[in-house]
Amino acid sequence: MAKSNIIKTAQELLAKGKGILAADESFPSIKKRFIEHNIVDNEESHSAYRELLFSTPEIEKYISGVIMFDETIKQKTDEGVPFPQYLSYRKIIPGIKVDQGTTQFRELSDEKITLGLDGLSERLSEYRSLGAKFTKWRGIFNIGKDLPTEEFLEENTKLLAEYAFLSQKNELLPIVEPEVLMTGIHTSADCLETTSKVLSIIFKKLRKRKVLLSGLLLKINMIVPGDQSEEKVTPEIVAKNTLECLIKNVPKEVPGIVFLSGGQTEQDATSNLNAIAVAGKKMPWKFTFSYGRALQNSVLRTWAGKPGNVILAQQIFLKRSRLNSLASLGKYHLSDEQEEI
Ligand code: 13P
């Protein structure tokens, strides 16, 4: 295995003041987002939207890499340049989601296990030939009465470790994404407890599978209360709890933690990342964003599928990316939101 290439990709993705755009919405997810904004959902509109994002002027100043979906990595710009080549030309690293969504774990179970190990080696080598340099696999964990179950934790983390092993074997940097979902009435303390448990099991499994810890990135939720919880938290509290969780469970060999936004508002995701960067200055890991919704919600709303709105939507995307870049450096202030675009 060319370990040095993987480690180099990790460092490039973590370049100072840059983060990752998650543009890897699967068919059902993109459909849901497009319907919310009355945008027609088909191959052409998916491609037009991804081109809007990828071709935003100056975006390479703030975005180091893009996670694509299977359809996207095979699509081209209007001028016929395949997206991975187009991104590379702009000095943005192409990446790909390699899990294939989730399915019900057991009959009557409320847990959803990740799919995608079948044929994964073949798909990894195909993606590598298409220009991908890194991959992502998401496992989701619900907090609820008696959830997550021990059996599910065992199985879903085993899949994450197997994926990471195969990705490294195919010389692609894995982004290991265990997401403890925000949906529910749970408290920050519940989120901290479950996320800690998930992380401690994952690192046991990764070590057992002999995955190179310096050759992966961890993509994780911040420690926040559930979206239906009454609890209110400041960014400083989110940062304190998140760092406590990472210190307890993440080995220092892991080069970086890239956060998902998980349903937080755009502004909360930025403020919370900023507080983590400030409080985590002396930690062994680099911190940055790997946001989907928190980089795209207002972009989609502005674009609304209309060619005449592309430029304004790109300006909004550039602004959101710049603010998250500032946050990754701990230099974001709420007043920055008022800046003209
Ligand atoms: P969100 O930032 O919208 O949570 O998406 C990130 C992601 O990659 C989910 O898999």
Q: Let me know the average pLDDT.
A: 97
Helix proportion of residues, in percent? 40-55%
Largest sheet: 8 strands, parallel, barrel
CATH superfamily: Aldolase class I
3D shape: globular
What name does CATH use for the topology? TIM Barrel
- Structural class assignment: alpha/beta
Kindly give the count of domains. Answer: 1
CATH class: Alpha Beta
Rounded to the nearest angstrom, the distance between the terminal CA atoms is: 45 Å
| Low-pLDDT regions | none
Helix segment tally: 12
Task: Please name the CATH architecture.
Answer: Alpha-Beta Barrel
| Percentage of residues in strands | 5-15%
Output the radius of gyration: 19 Å
**H and E order:** HEHHEHHEEEHEHEHEHEHEHH
Task: Describe, in plain words, how this protein is organized in 3D.
- The structure is a single chain.
- The longest helix is centred in the middle third of the chain and has 21 residues, at 188-208.
- With 341 residues, the chain is of the alpha/beta class.
- Helix content is 45%, strand content 15%.
- It has a single domain (3-338), classed as Alpha-Beta Barrel (TIM Barrel).
- Strand 6, helix 7 (150-169) and strand 7 form a beta-alpha-beta unit.
- An eight-stranded parallel β-barrel has the order 1-2-3-6-7-8-9-10, surrounded by seven helices. A two-stranded antiparallel ribbon has the order 4-5.
- It is built from twelve helices and ten strands.
- It is globular.
- 1,3-dihydroxyacetonephosphate binds at residues 22, 138, 177, 260-262, 291-294.
